[in-house]
Amino acid sequence: MVLGRGKRRRRSQRGGGKRALSGCSMLWHSLLRVLRQRWHRYKYRFVPWIALNLSQNQRTLRYVPDNSKDKIIPDEDVLGALLKVFRALFINDFSRQTDILVLLPEAIKSEYQHSLVSHHPRTEKPVNRIQQQKLCQPGEVLFNTLGFSISRETSSLISAGKGVFVTRGFVPKGTVVSMYPGTVYQQHEPIFFQSIGNPFIFRCLDGMLIDGNDKGISKVVYRSCNGRDQLGPFKMSDCTWLTSEVQNPLAVGQYVNNCSNDKAANVCYQEFDVPELFPMELKQYLPNIMFSRDTRR
Fold first, then answer.
1. Does 60 reside within a domain?
2. Which domain covers residue 202, as residue numbers?
3. What confidence tens digit (pLDDT) does each residue in 139-165 have?
4. Per-residue pLDDT reduced to its tens digit, 261-292
5. Residue 295: inside a domain
6. What is the pTM (predicted TM-score) of this model?
7. Which among 56, 57, 66, 182 could bridge 212 via Cys, Cβ 3.0 to 4.6 Å?
8. Is residue 267 one of the residues assigned to a domain?
9. In a 10 Å sphere around its CB, with 0-12 CB exposed, 13-18 middle and 19+ buried, how is residue 235 labelled?
10. How many distinct structural domains can be found in the chain?
């Protein structure tokens, strides 16, 4: 009887060892699956992999003979679209712009009040118009201004995470559909720690980098620079793209996915330099800020 129990005990131990090995195997496969998913997201930013796979991704290539010719539409059209959307957002939020309106020249102030009148023709007094103004959601403002609205949702591409979708309306060819938000770094500025595990670093043609990550240290850096550059009531950039309450509906460009062999691109990026004479009261909607204060915007 004693030997029998000893034998059963040994068999039980061997069975427990198999279960332990099975558990380790499942953990290992789970770890491999996570690493594989991360690699699929990161490989498009890994230079050796890109170099070895250029011939297999002809659709991702676009020949540009000169940096100055890397324009799909003129800069004037880009500026016009941004001003149109930003002014509509400003008027929609007119009741909260009191501190800014006090400091604006009378001509510019009158122009905004006239635009407010055209949006609310039934009201007789300007004061009442401001008080009775009904705010629209930023996405609704975008739809009323450019004829479409977009949102960030789960991508239909495998292992692509989030993506940007047109949720309403129609986007004509050559239309500005989004902006790539984030802190702008020059080549010599420190970005090492922000770039670790960060898939949202965008390199411009002139070597400048845009960190479009809305989490971690990238988020802290952007908020810090945003508070640093504010001039009284005038904000030099928009930081709401870091939150769930986004005031500029175009500031989702970092979530636009690359094309693949299975799905062709339906948008392309174009670099645009914000002019120095950009309206001060509308800079609050710009989702970019320079890392160094002394750097020319």
1. no
2. 68-115+136-290
3. 999 999 999 999 999 877 776 678 899
4. 777 888 988 999 999 899 999 999 999 999 99
5. no
6. 0.75
7. 182
8. yes
9. buried
10. 1
